[in-house]
């Protein structure tokens, strides 16, 4: 499967760049889907340095597109009254240096859901410039950590890759079941 994907990307040529950027943007818009798989494809196809650069570029494009889309969506919701003392009300008051430091801290941690950070920032009053600069600075170490981790997994024996893949799927299933159970309790 991996070889077929790489072969298809080789045939695609320059389209592989566009596909990678589009995939990162789509993942950013979906908010809670990890981009690690796109990073793995980029590292496999383009090599370590070029793959990291492409992943970083794609994530930054995705972050800005999703910030803009979420902000437009939230402008509609803000016209409606949001109950006081909710997390969204508190986030909407975050601005300036506090917003910059919060976004930066959340971006540096590579496995924090990037979409959640973008959603929270889009709902807040943080300026686009502060959001972009904090995301830009924070994404550099995050993509490096993610890239090195993915690189090590790609270098591992296929047995280890299989175990990690199955483990990732199990974690996602457990998380989904937990969320589903929690939603059922809320509905009761």
Write structural notes for this entry.
This protein has helices at residues 2-12, 15-30, 36-46, 48-79, 87-92, 96-108, 114-123, 128-155, 158-187. It is built from 9 helices and no strands. The chain is globular and about 50 Å long. By secondary structure, it is mainly alpha-helical. Helix 2 packs parallel to helix 4. It folds into 2 domains: 1-154, no CATH class; 156-187. Helices cover 84% and strands 0% of the residues. This is TVP38/TMEM64 family membrane protein. It is a multi-pass membrane protein. Keywords: Cell membrane, Membrane, Transmembrane, Transmembrane helix.
Helices and strands, with pairings:
Layout: H1 2-12, H2 15-30, H3 36-46, H4 48-79, H5 87-92, H6 96-108, H7 114-123, H8 128-155, H9 158-187
Helix pairs in contact: 2-4, 3-4, 3-8, 4-7, 4-8, 6-8
């Amino acid at each position: 499967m991996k070889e077929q994907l790489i072969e298809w990307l080789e045939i695609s040529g320059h389209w592989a760049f566009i596909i990678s950027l589009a995939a990162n943007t789509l993942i950013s818009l979906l908010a809670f889907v990890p981009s690690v798989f796109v990073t793995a494809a980029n590292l496999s196809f383009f090599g370590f340095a070029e793959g990291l650069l492409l992943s970083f570029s794609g994530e930054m494009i995705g972050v800005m597109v999703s910030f803009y889309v979420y902000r437009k969506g939230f402008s509609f919701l803000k016209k409606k009254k949001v109950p006081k003392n909710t997390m969204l009300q508190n986030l909407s008051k975050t601005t300036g240096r506090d917003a910059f430091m919060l976004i930066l801290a959340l971006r540096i941690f590579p496995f924090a859901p990037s979409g959640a950070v973008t959603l929270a920032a889009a709902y807040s009053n943080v300026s686009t410039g502060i959001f972009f600069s904090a995301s830009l600075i924070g994404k550099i170490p995050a993509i490096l950590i993610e890239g090195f981790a993915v690189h090590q997994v790609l270098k591992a024996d296929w047995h280890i890759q299989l175990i990690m893949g199955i483990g990732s799927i199990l974690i996602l299933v457990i998380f989904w079941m937990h969320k589903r159970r929690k939603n059922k309790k809320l509905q009761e």
